[in-house]
Amino acid sequence: MSGSWPYVIAAWIIVIGAFLTYAVVTILRGRSLSKQVPPERRRWS
C-alpha cells in the first residue's frame, strides 16, 4: 500500500492544476468579453 502514494500525490497535483488552469482561463476570458460590452449596457462598476 505504501508504494501507491506517489500516484495519489501525482493525481492530486494534476487535478488541482487542471482546476487552477480552468479558473485562470475562465477569468481571463470573462475580462476580455466584459471589455466588449458598451458602457451603457454594463450592470457592474
Brief overview, please?
With 45 residues, the chain is mainly α. Helices cover 67% and strands 0% of the residues.
What report would you give on this structure?
The chain has 45 residues and is mostly helical. Helices cover 67% and strands 0% of the residues. The protein has 1 helix and no strands. The chain has one helix spanning 5-34. The model has no long low-confidence stretch (mean pLDDT 93).
Helix proportion range: 55-70%
Q: What ranges have pLDDT less than 50 throughout 5 or more consecutive residues? A: none
Largest sheet: none
**Overall residue-averaged pLDDT value:** 93
Question: What is the terminal separation in angstroms?
Answer: 54 Å
The gyration radius over C-alpha positions equals: 19 Å
Per the principal axes of the C-alpha atoms, what is the gross shape?
rod-shaped
Number of helices: 1
The computed structural class is mainly alpha
Order of helices and strands: H
Task: Give the total of beta strands.
Answer: 0
- Fraction in beta strands: under 5%
What keyword list fits this structure?
45 residues, mainly alpha, 67% helix
Strands, helices and their partners?
Elements: H1 5-34
